Amino acid sequence: MNVLMVASECAPFVKTGGLADVVGALPQALAQVGIDCRTVLPAYPSLQPLVAKGKEVASFGDLPGGAGRLVQVKAKGITLLLLDAPRQFDRPGQPYTDQNGADWADNHQRFAALAQAAARISFDGLGDWRPDVVHAHDWQAALAPVYLKQEGRAGPKSVLTIHNIAFQGRYGAHVLNELGLRADWFNPDGLEYYGDVGFLKGGMMFADRITTVSPTYAREILTPHFGMGLDGVLHARANSLSGILNGIDTNIWNPADDTTLAATYDSRSLRRKDTNRKEISEHLGLDPKCDGPLFCVISRLTHQKGLDALAGAVPHIVARGGQLAVLGTGEPGLEDAFREAAGTFTSNVGVHIGFDEGLAHLLQGGSDAILIPSRFEPCGLTQLCALRYGTLPVVARTGGLADTVIDANAAALAAKCATGFVFGDVSVAGVQAAIDRVVSCYSNKTAWQSMQRAAMRQPVDWEQSAQAYANLYGELAE
């Protein structure tokens, strides 16, 4: 079976968040179950060296925003179809924003071009390769199912995966014509969303199936609290909605052979995590003699992630004998709050504002627990990495966090299946209560190591999820 992926980012080539990790890992996992994937991806400036190595397989003179061509190249085990459209994508800055952090004014044209290019090649294919299913990811690719349906002829079925429903892609009605969208579809049962053209909403209306990245999040987004205004649309398509849990690349995230660690280890050599903790202490200026738990944060520093609540709980972590290591970037106010905490508790709080892949691995390898107090979390990947590394997740009860972490309640501890700590109240008091539970459990080294080993046994790879996607594709293709 052939599947055409459509996405705005793909690790390791271009990444701003977890979407890229999924789009980068899923095609390789699907290959193990007999699915041949090709991935349509914008040719941002950083990908131009790959464009130079590839072969042109299609060209378009009239995409929204300008002409473009698809260049096929295989890299890192993924067959890429790079949309080389200089007017849309050859520019400095991030994939979605300029050098000042503002959204590109023509993002509607840029990502409509991506979706339209994918749809156009879906009918006739590329040589002897033709997709059975087109799989679009998030709002940037969500018009692909729309363009497929708009063509009005038999073609491949479509899947839209919602990675985060908070990001929707809304533009004024005036863009209909310039994007080549049907004006008679601008209504509540089509593309119209509160007077605007809704990219994500349109994809949700016209895709054959809708998935999201965890079973719990699939249920949550049917409610007004989590649906971000689209819960009514999802209720109308509820029979086509399902949740398939994300996985991680366990070749990259493997403490037994992770070269970024100061010391590799497995479930039988957990004491070697101490060497990594010492390396973290040296890197961030923490007191290496502290015998309390080392908590870490590897995250965007945003309100969604609940890190305002954590910032208020930092003094409590220190008062309970713990330490905190923070890696991330985000809202200026939260960046300042964690910098201030590091300045106040110099030997117990360390902060690195920015992102450093090697440091992310080291924090997973040397910390005792990872804090993820998200107010909503479609899936989350850092808790999966933490499980793999025996770094116990402390998570809010939402989305994929609830689906992947087994709370250390009395029954789970007795059955030796607990893998972390789950709490419901995302507030300073709620985070403090969760920290108290962690500190109490950490004092019992036997129970703590039992939890670490249970966490490291938990499947976090793509095997089960890839088979679930393969089954979904098979149903559609039939």
UniProtKB/TrEMBL annotation:
**Domain Glycosyl transferase family: where?**
291-445
- The yes or no answer to whether the keyword Membrane is present is no
List its EC numbers: 2.4.1.21
Detail which positions bind ADP-alpha-D-glucose. 15
InterPro entries (UniProt xref): Glyco_trans_1, GS/SS, Starch_synth_cat_dom
Q: Which Pfam families match?
A: Glyco_transf_5, Glycos_transf_1
Pathway(s) annotated for this protein in UniProt: Glycan biosynthesis; glycogen biosynthesis
Family, similarity comment: Belongs to the glycosyltransferase 1 family. Bacterial/plant glycogen synthase subfamily.
Which PANTHER family is this protein grouped with?
A: ALPHA AMYLASE DOMAIN-CONTAINING PROTEIN (PTHR45825:SF11), GRANULE-BOUND STARCH SYNTHASE 1, CHLOROPLASTIC/AMYLOPLASTIC (PTHR45825)
Classification via HAMAP family:
Glycogen_synth
Q: What is this protein called?
A: Glycogen synthase
